[in-house]
Write a structure and sequence with these properties.
Two copies of one chain form a homodimer. The first copy, chain A, has helices at about 15-25, 45-50, 55-60, 65-70, 95-105, 120-125, 145-160, 180-195, 205-215, 220-235; strands spanning about 5-10, 30-35, 60-65, 75-80, 90, 105-110, 130. Chain A is built from ten helices and seven strands. Chain A has two domains: about 5-160, 3-Layer(aba) Sandwich (Alpha/beta knot); about 180-235, Helicase, Ruva Protein, domain 3 (Orthogonal Bundle), CATH 1.10.8. In chain A, helix 1 packs parallel to helix 7 (about 145-160) and helix 8 (about 180-195) packs parallel to helix 10. In chain A, about 50% of the residues are buried. In chain A, strand 1, helix 1 and strand 2 (about 30-35) form a beta-alpha-beta unit. Chains A, B: Catalyzes the formation of 2'O-methylated cytidine (Cm32) or 2'O-methylated uridine (Um32) at position 32 in tRNA.
Chain lengths: ~240, ~240
């Protein structure tokens, strides 16, 4: 029932936090851990802090980039402590758990660095941001306890579903993956250049807004194909 | 609003956990920490793990017995991982937070030793037990993350009472109107005709899918303007 959920830790500095996160996950019945360029891994300290959850460390997938970590995910939720310049759909942990089990999509929860969290670019790859409602004056949670809160809410939601299977959304087409989204946005950026829509002085802002818009819609694969078709048709006509 | 709540840690072995608990408390707006016969305190490791919450360590009350720690409390809730011989009123973390704020009583949450939790005698001093719903096969949470879960639920409950609402990310642009959506979709349909994307045999289905997609995203007016700009740019290029 939790196979569709992965916890992604980006550029973790302290191996103890990786171990603590693994323990928190296993306590709450989660098993899929993905590490994006951890500073130190594997590590004795991680095993020690995992305190019996070292099987999750053994099976952890280590990758170089966030893109790889989430390429096949249909729902990506990034943890964020701060307000961003461009507002993004924002959930609290409970809402994020509801969404995860409502749709049953291949889902990633992405946690950033201990000191700086996720970069703006990383956050923009997420469909939603989740904010653990800490007090403003002291808002930065320890990484493992942040994982604990999210994993706890996922567990509470799962238990509230009882024995009833996940209510699959009745959408008739599978949700698009992050990789498909990336390809479509690249295609879009090229076309916007060709039709001279993109302001060369500020291309990123426009593309960020397009990413936000299309991710927010949680596009399905047919819609994705339709947009790609439109882009190809524009290219043909404009040459 | 949280002055009536104290966190009581009984016989903690690892000072790092005391620091971690202090940090979790401060993140969630709690400030009263009571330590019953900690093995090592004060300690550099506790300060280090508190990571900015050392003021809670400085003001922590250290006592010899649980009785002293809770003597003036009206509601005592003890954390328990196991089923006990004598059933006790059992809450989940969410229910325990509801109870705490419902009554406004002087309340203690009591956390046991890292390895053995609370003794039966200690648990029997509690009005209620609270169980964090871990998986049975791996049920023992790290002490600081257990404090985090309870403190998080207290915070969620407090915020739901409206005392200091969660700072919602404020969308910076007004939502688009239905009329703006209709105009954009008309514009889109014209352009899709011009670039010969629309199948004349089944134009409606495509436009229906576009409407569904863009409505689902609940577009704002800036995004709407951006899309209109793209459509206009395509028209210019393709003539």
């Amino acid at each position: 029932m939790t196979e569709n959920i992965r916890i992604v830790l980006v550029n973790t500095s302290h191996p103890g936090n990786i171990g603590g996160a693994a323990r928190a996950m296993k306590n709450m019945g989660l098993s899929k851990l993905v590490l994006v360029s951890p500073k130190v891994f594997p590590s004795e300290e991680a095993v020690s802090r995992a305190s019996g959850a070292s099987d999750l460390l053994d099976s952890a997938v280590v990758v170089d980039t966030l893109e790889e970590a989430i390429s096949d995910c249909q729902l990506v939720i990034g943890t964020s402590a701060r307000e961003r310049h461009i507002p993004w759909p924002l959930l609290d942990p409970r809402e994020s758990a509801e969404l995860t089990y409502k749709e049953g999509l291949e889902t990633a929860f992405v946690f950033g660095r201990e000191d700086r969290g996720l970069t703006n670019e990383e956050l923009q790859r997420c469909h939603y941001h989740v904010h653990i409602p800490s007090v403003e004056a002291f808002s930065s949670l320890n990484l493992a306890t942040a994982v604990q809160v999210i994993a706890y809410e996922l567990r509470m939601k799962l238990l509230s579903l009882g024995d009833s299977p996940i209510v699959q959304s009745k959408w008739d087409v599978p949700a698009a993956t992050s990789e498909q989204m990336d390809h479509m946005l690249e295609h879009l950026e090229n076309v916007l250049g060709e039709i001279e829509f993109l302001d060369p002085k500020a291309p990123r802002q426009v593309m960020t807004r397009f990413r936000r818009l299309y991710q927010r819609a949680q596009m399905d694969q047919q819609e994705m194909g339709m947009l790609r078709g439109v882009l190809t048709a524009i290219e043909k006509q404009c040459r």
